[in-house]
Design goal:
Layout: H1 13-19, E1 20-25, E2 33-39, E3 42-48, H2 54-74, E4 84-86, E5 92-96, E6 100-102, H3 115-128, E7 131-132, E8 142-145, E9 150-152, E10 159-160, H4 166-190, H5 207-223
Antiparallel strand pairs: 1-2, 2-3, 3-5, 4-5, 6-8, 7-10, 8-9
Helix pairs in contact: 3-4
Length: about 230
């Protein structure tokens, strides 16, 4: 089945109300509800801000949904990246559900041969499309799919490459290097046969880059909520 990226061709608000199977997250005042929806032969994860207050919906929710929709549109067609099914309405975004497990729950012996090389290649491929994920230190954002291939989810904190703003280019380079460092550190952490090896040092950063990462980490500690990987149904 060919799926249009336009919301009206996939789901509407009525579909979300009638075909929500479960919630990965529900009722947090500063974050969207995350629904698992089965409808019209498709399985989707839906980020839904509709039950939040008007100010939060307008000033935060719609802005974040538009950003993630843009990132996924730039990555359309890459294996291991979920398809965007569009906007059921202004306050929600439907994204393909990927059948896999987050690496946070995968035993080191269970990784297929070549998994880490393919994951590294996938991360570099999204960088070539001009997108840096920025949140790969959260292991729930990296999946091992049912066929053993890698996948990335949750591009809400991503950033795109810009040719216009020097500051934007520097920030993109910071998050690009951070992505690669997270993957390499995770590879070594999960490898049972590298007991004498140490994780690589953090990338060399400018002082202002270190301060930006520190601010991001503080924000994540305040608002981070586990969502069961969003790649694994509860």
């Amino acid at each position: 089945m060919t799926v249009s990226a336009h919301a009206s061709a996939v789901f509407d608000r009525g579909d979300l109300q009638d075909h929500t199977v479960s919630f990965f997250r529900h009722g947090w005042p500063t974050l969207p509800d995350i629904r698992l929806v089965h409808c019209r032969g498709l399985c989707a994860v839906v980020k839904d801000w509709s039950s939040r207050g008007a100010l939060r919906r307008f000033l935060q929710g719609r802005f974040m949904l538009a950003r993630e929709e843009h990132f996924l549109s730039r990555l359309r067609g890459l294996p291991g990246i979920p398809r965007c099914f569009g906007r059921p309405d202004a306050d929600s975004l439907a994204i393909e559900f990927l059948d896999g497990r987050p690496v946070s729950v995968v035993h080191p012996h269970e990784y297929p041969i070549g998994y880490w090389d393919r994951l590294d290649a996938l991360v570099r491929a999204i960088h070539e499309r001009g997108v840096a994920h920025g949140d790969l230190d959260q292991e729930d954002n990296i999946l091992v799919l049912s066929d053993g291939s890698p996948a990335l989810i949750d591009f809400g904190n991503a950033i795109t490459q810009s040719r216009c703003s020097p500051l934007h280019r520097l920030l993109f380079d910071l998050l690009r290097r951070h992505d690669l460092w997270c993957i390499e550190r995770l590879r070594l952490k999960k490898d049972l046969f590298t007991g004498l090896r140490k994780a690589p040092p953090p990338p060399r950063l400018y002082g202002w880059q270190r301060r930006i990462l520190l601010v991001f980490n503080k924000m994540e500690r305040r608002e981070h909520v586990r969502t069961h990987g969003v790649g694994q149904a509860p």
